[in-house]
């Protein structure tokens, strides 16, 4: 990587186009000056042209020399790139007989269009859908719900208000959707009102904030009594520093752009969940996870090719691919006996001693007798004995 960085800094310092471009400016000036002199004194045309030819040739030579430097830089940089990242053709490593998304083009198109819509790029999404439909009019799977655009537009309108420091629209929306948000145990409305209170305290003073709090806080008393106490008393401790400095650093206002961004992200998450959509774009998540996994898969694939072994299961990867915590959406249980990940068909079962194994492993361990349900087995992880019927399925 160091060699690459060295080449890059060389490219930036020496081989950039600033020299050639100022040289071209010089040449243009030369031509314009000559034109002006000829226009002012037509009788000197011959002399001026001779002078111009001499000067221009010199400048063009210099320009060629400068450009050569740029080409040289680009060449050695691309050589360094090739050396560092050896290209592997996907055809060499992929199992071309198995195309997982080939039959699902409609769904992929829909995912692309949905991604564009949720990014607020409505026009691009519409053009994309139009072109898809022109090619394949019968495909019903790629339709985007018609009211989606309006819903996303409202979301972006509110997010723009939050970015301007105005929370009122967001609070109104949360209030309109109070029941559904409460069903999800969402803190959205409270967080918005709390942030507004603290922002008023910071900009207009504690007294003004108290007026607002008196009006708003009673509806949150049941759920957030302790937090209300903190929020109301927090500003009393403030002297010269900002309100969030002490004594409760977790209390947020919307003074900084970062805080506004956090609040916007929280709002979008809740908004999308009420629309039945995930917080982040599935296309973005899938593509990012794929990009993280690809180098490892390429390596596995080439090792398997060398050893002439085959990838036996299409639904399971032969290696573990760790993803960042933000990509973990639910817990998984891997059976400690069979080392397989539990599924709906093969769910995790808890034995009376508290140890958990997969259902199939449990069946294998208890199947030794004639009547499976009455045979006792020893837990594979502790000395306790139990019957198959004592085990209980666990839900995560
Ligand atoms: Zn046990």
UniProtKB/TrEMBL annotation:
Subcellular location(s) of the protein: Cytoplasm
Zn finger residue spans: RING-Gid-type:
335-382
Name the GO cellular-component terms. cytoplasm; GID complex; nucleus
Q: Which is an annotated GO molecular function term of this record?
A: zinc ion binding
Supply the alphabetized keyword list: Cytoplasm, Metal-binding, Zinc, Zinc-finger
GO biological process per UniProt = proteasome-mediated ubiquitin-dependent protein catabolic process
Q: Which residues form the RING-Gid-type domain?
A: 335-382
Pfam hit, one: zf-RING_UBOX
Family statement drawn from the similarity comment of this UniProt entry: Belongs to the RMD5/GID2 family.
Q: Which InterPro entries match?
A: CTLH/CRA, CTLH_C, Fyv10_fam, Rmd5_dRing, ZF_RING_GID, Znf-RING_euk, Znf_RING/FYVE/PHD
- Cite the CTLH domain residue spans from the record: 151-208
Instruction: Report the protein name in the record.
Output: GID complex catalytic subunit 2
């Amino acid at each position: 990587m160091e060699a690459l960085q060295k080449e890059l800094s060389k490219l930036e310092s020496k081989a950039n186009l600033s020299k050639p471009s100022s040289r071209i400016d010089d040449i243009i000036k030369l031509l314009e000056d000559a034109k002006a002199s000829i226009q002012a004194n037509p009788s000197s045309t011959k002399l001026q042209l001779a002078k111009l030819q001499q000067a221009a040739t010199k400048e063009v030579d210099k320009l060629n020399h400068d450009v050569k430097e740029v080409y040289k830089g680009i060449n050695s940089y691309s050589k360094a790139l090739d050396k560092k990242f050896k290209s592997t053709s996907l055809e060499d490593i992929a199992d071309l007989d198995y195309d997982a998304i080939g039959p699902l083009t409609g769904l992929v198109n829909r995912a692309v269009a949905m991604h564009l819509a949720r990014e607020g790029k409505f026009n691009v999404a519409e053009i994309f859908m139009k072109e898809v439909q022109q090619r394949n009019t019968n495909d019903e799977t790629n339709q985007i719900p018609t009211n989606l655009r309006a819903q996303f537009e409202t979301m972006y309108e509110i997010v723009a208000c939050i970015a301007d420091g105005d929370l009122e629209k967001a609070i109104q929306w949360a209030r309109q959707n109070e029941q559904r948000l409460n069903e999800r145990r969402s803190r959205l409305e409270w967080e918005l009102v709390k942030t507004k209170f603290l922002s008023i305290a910071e900009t207009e003073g504690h007294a003004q904030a108290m007026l607002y709090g008196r009006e708003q806080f009673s509806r949150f008393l049941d759920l957030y009594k302790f937090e209300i106490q903190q929020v109301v008393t927090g500003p009393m401790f403030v002297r010269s520093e900002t309100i969030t400095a002490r004594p409760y650093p977790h209390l947020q206002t919307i003074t900084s752009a970062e805080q506004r961004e956090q609040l916007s992200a929280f709002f979008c998450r809740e908004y999308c969940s009420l629309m039945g959509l995930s917080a982040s774009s599935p296309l973005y998540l899938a593509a990012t996870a794929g990009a993280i996994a690809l180098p490892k898969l390429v390596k596995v694939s080439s090792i398997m090719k060398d050893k002439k072994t085959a990838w036996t299961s299409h639904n399971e990867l032969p290696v573990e691919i760790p993803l960042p915590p933000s990509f973990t959406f639910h817990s998984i249980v891997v059976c400690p006996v069979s080392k397989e990940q539990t599924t709906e068909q093969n769910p995790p079962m808890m034995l009376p001693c508290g140890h958990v194994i997969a259902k199939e492993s449990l069946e294998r361990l208890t199947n030794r007798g004639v009547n499976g349900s009455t045979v006792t087995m020893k837990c594979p992880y502790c000395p306790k004995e139990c019957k198959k019927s004592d085990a209980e399925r666990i839900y995560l």
